[in-house]
Every structure is written in C-alpha cells, then in structure tokens.
Amino acid sequence: MRDDKKEDRVSDTSQPRSSGLMRKLPLIIILFAAAIGAFTLKDYLNFQTLADNREALLAVRDNHYALTALVFMGAYALIVGFSLPGAAVMTLTGGFLFATFPGALFNMTGATLGAIAIFLAARWGLGERLAEKMDTSDGLTKKIKAGIDDNQWSMLFLIRLVPAVPFFVANLVPALVGVPLGRYAISTFLGIIPGAVVYTSVGAGLGEVFDRGETPDLGIIFEPAILLPILGLCALAALPILVKAARGKQGI
After folding, report:
1. Is 204 within 8 Å of 95 (Cβ atoms)?
2. CB–CB of 189/224 below 8 Å?
3. Which CB contacts under 8 angstroms, 24+ apart, belong to 134-141?
4. Which residues contact 232 (CB under 8 A, 6 or more apart)?
5. Measured distance CA(57)–CA(154) in Å, rounded
6. pTM of the model
7. What does the alpha-carbon distance between residue 137 and residue 153 come to, in Å, rounded to a whole number?
8. Among the listed ranges 20-29, 93-102, 107-116, 186-195, which one has the minimum average pLDDT value?
9. Residue 72's CB: how many other CB atoms inside 10 A?
10. How do residues 47-71 score in pLDDT, each as one tens digit?
C-alpha cells in the first residue's frame, strides 16, 4: 500500500511538470531556431542573395504567379514566426516581385501570420499563467495590468506604429498580458501598414538599385516626410490613453 501511495505521488508531481514543459515547448523551439538562424542564415537572407537570384525569381513569378505569392507569404510567416534574420529583405523582396501593391498586402499577410505564431506560442507557454498572476496580484503590478487592459487597442497600435519598438518585442508583450487573439491579429495587420507600404515601395525600385550596384536605404522610414506622418498616427493612437489619464486625475 505504501509503495502504491509513493507511485501516485510521483505521478501527480511529474504530470504537472511534463505538461508545463509541453506548454513551453513551442516557445523553446522558436527561441532555439532564432538562435541558430542568427548564426547560420545571416549570410544567405540578405540583399546580395536577392541580387544574385533576381532573374530566376522573376522568371518563377511570371510562370507561377499565384504559387509564388503563396510560397512567399509562407516563407515570410516562417521567418517572422521563428524570428529568423531576413524580415527586412523579405519585405523588400515582396515589393521587388509584386510591386507596391499587392506586394504590401502579401508582406502584411505573411508578417501577421508569423506574428500570430509567436503570440500563440508565448501565450500558451507563459502568457496565460502570467496574466492570471498579474490579475490576482496587488499593488503596482495590478495597476499596470489594469492600465493595459483599459487601453488595449491604443497600446497595440502604438507598439506597432513606433518604429523604435522591435517587431519581436511587439509580438511577445501582448501575449504576456492576456490580449485576445482577434484583437492582436487585427491591430497587427493594420498597425504595420505604414511601415509595410514604405519598405515595399522601396523594394519595388530594387531593380534600378541593383543595376547601379547600390544597396537599398532602409533608413528611409526616418526621413521627415515619412517619419512625421507615422508619428502623427502614433499620437492619435496615444490620444485615448492620455484622455483617460486626464479624466482619471480629474475624477471624471
């Protein structure tokens, strides 16, 4: 009888551990793939590779347009989903192969699908439990969580619009604070429109850049003519947060 009780205790303690590990497994795989990709793929997913293979890529696109678009969006989703290097190159490739439109649409779709993969992995492994702990906690932690919950749409659009926020960070943070999947997906797709259109339009002119033996200027998004409108959108996204904060101070 004593041995049976010991076995039951062992199985009871091992099951939560194993299930906890399984929940974290997708996120662990993503982080592992990101670490390997940072060292093994950086010499392949670059502008030189695109320049060397541009004729072949254009030929494939011309012969199999729909299939090329689907494969491109799938590859983009994999790169974003596993946080591999080359997302910027893929965005420009979308413009190079498919022009600004529908290239921007293909880029946004691939990026959103990849972002959703990271979001689900992070939420399944860490986010749900972390959000529950934040809800049941006291003091500053609970206030931060409540502030995020009260301004989810604004916060989601803000982290997507601000160019200084890394894409990987913008994918993880919402998962860790309990943002609903639908809200996350919509804000991601719409929030990346400005950056996607800018970089896709740069990619649409890559042929001439390669002919001159030059490298595309990715800093174009920080030029005043482009940055100021994006900052204006950031201000609009932040406005509801500021209004709520002002009303809270006034006791409205």
Report:
1. yes
2. no
3. 134/177, 134/178, 135/178
4. none
5. 39
6. 0.79
7. 23
8. 20-29
9. 22
10. 888 888 889 999 999 999 999 999 9
